[in-house]
Amino acid sequence: MRSGAPGGAHNPRRARSYIRRNGRFLARREEDRAELMDDPGADVATLERTYDRFRLVNAVVSNSRAVYRRWIRPRLSSTETRRVLDIGAGGADVPRALLAWARADGLRMEVTAIDPDERALAWARRQPPMPGLVLRQATSRELADAAECFDVVMSNHVLHHLDGRELGALLADSERLARNAGLVVHGDIERSRLGYAGFALGTLPFVPNLLAGTFIRADGLTSIRRSHTAAELAALLPPGWRVRRGFPSRLEVVWGVDG
User: Fold this and answer.
1) Which of 36, 50, 118, 196 is the least buried, fewest Cβ under 10 Å from its Cβ?
2) Phi, psi of 221, rounded to the nearest 5 degrees
3) What are phi and psi of 48, to 5 degrees?
4) DSSP β-bridge partners for residue 232
5) d(CA 25, CA 227)
6) Residue 1 resides in a domain
7) Alpha carbon 114 to chain centroid, angstroms
8) In angstroms, rounded to a whole number, what is the distance separating the alpha carbons of residues 131 and 39?
9) CATH of the domain at 30
10) Is residue 129 part of a domain?
11) Range of 223's domain?
């Protein structure tokens, strides 16, 4: 399946040529584009290799360590267990990383990783168990309706999958789940030509090895085209929410913090 810039985004020379010729490339969000992983009929072996390699790609693209340092670690304690909710956790690579960093810092944390996709949860449950990791096939609405409460509510690369109504519902659920002085931080990609070119060129050397037999490169390029700019997201947010830019080409939608 073709993805990325017309004429072959997998070819960086053609991608650069297209961007030069078409000044409106990435000028608007292409929310109707479908990601291969979202196909219910996606090849299971390819899907599971994708879950496995996400831990390596997300370490760079999502900058989860920065999210942990800025937003999560300051709210943790060495004596009391804090609850973190990761919405749309997929194969749970980010929750595992967060738990490892907290343990190394001598801090106590439990991460509930939820995803409505049974394929993702099935793969995550087959991985070695990790203390503090709770895997649940659930939605944010189901947990909010059950009056669950967390110290931190977060997601990684979920927002670009949502339309306006779904985004509003997620933000409302997040506020309910983080009541009692909780924090919400939803991280996503920021759509830009620089980010698109960086991902296209940065992943190119790994196509025949690390990324072989995965959806990561094709879906990553599609994700950028589906993503918002900071201004677009800010225009959609209800009162009390704000957008913050992060590195590299990232956005953080936050609630429950000042400044």
Assistant:
1) 118
2) -65, -40
3) -70, -35
4) none
5) 13
6) no
7) 13
8) 32
9) 3.40.50.150
10) yes
11) 12-255
Q: How many CB atoms lie within 10 A of CB 12?
A: 14
Question: Helices (DSSP H) in the chain: which residue ranges?
Answer: 12-21, 44-61, 64-67, 93-104, 118-125, 140-145, 164-177, 193-203, 216-226, 230-236
| Successive 10-residue mean pLDDT values, the chain, 259 residues | 36 52 79 94 97 91 94 97 97 97 98 97 96 98 98 97 96 95 96 95 95 97 97 97 93 86
- Single out the residue of 173, 166, 167 nearest to residue 145, CA to CA: 173
Burial (Cβ within 10 Å: 0-12, 13-18, ≥19) of residue 37: buried
The domain total for the chain is 1
Paired tokens of 41: 């009929």
Return the structure tokens found at 35. 């990601």
Q: Alpha-carbon torsion 134, 138, 144, 146, what sign? A: negative
**Per-residue pLDDT at 14:** 57
Q: Do residues 174 and 255 touch, judged by C-beta distance below 8 A?
A: yes
Q: What is the pTM of this model?
A: 0.89
How far CA 203 is from CA of 12, 42, 60, 78, 209, in Å, comes to 11, 22, 11, 39, 11
Query: Is residue 244 included in any domain, yes or no?
Result: yes
| Residue type at position 107 | L
C-alpha dist (Å) from residue 221 to 10, 24, 55, 107, 148: 10, 16, 18, 36, 35
Token readout for 116 is 């409505």
